[in-house]
Amino acid sequence: MSEKFWLVVQYPLKSAAGSQRDHWLRDKVMEYLEIALTDANLGYVDGFDLGKCISDPKKYALNIFCVITDEEQSIALVKRILRDSRLDYTRIKIATLPDGKEEPYTLKYSYKKGVTKFSL
Question: How confident is the model at residue 1 (pLDDT cuts 50, 70, 90)?
Fold first, then answer.
């Protein structure tokens, strides 16, 4: 892997602990993305966090982190896998960050039109 990026897929949650369905969704999304990214030789799933948002403690989110090598191809693949697998594609945000940089994530896709900001 030459240049690496962090890619995060974010789902909004209704509570810090998440529901049983949120946990099922986390497991399925991680499983499907791990297979797709590895098969395409684009990267791998690195983990997740679940709970309060750093930027707004009254909001909750599930963040799934991936390490990728090609930003454009990986984003397209992630969107296609989540849409085709019916894994709540209509609720996601996708953001990236070059590995080793100390800057905020850059929003690359949002299910809501007009959204321009992203935070964990």
Answer: very low
What is the residue extent of each domain of the chain? 5-110
Identify how many contiguous H helices and E strands the chain contains and give both numbers.
2, 5
What 3-state DSSP class applies to 13?
strand
Question: Strand runs (DSSP E) across 20-99, as ranges?
Answer: 43-52, 60-68, 93-98
Give Cβ neighbours of residue 1 (< 8 Å, ≥ 6 apart). Answer: 43, 67, 69
Length of the chain: 120
Q: Taking 80 as the threshold, does the pLDDT of residue 2 lie above it?
A: no
Buried b (16+ CB within 10 A) or exposed e, 11-37: bebeeeebeeebeebbeebbebbeebb
User: Which numeric CATH code is attached to 5-110?
Assistant: 3.30.70
Three-class SS of 33-53: HHHHHHHCCCEEEEEEEEEEC
Q: Is the pTM of this model over 0.85?
A: yes
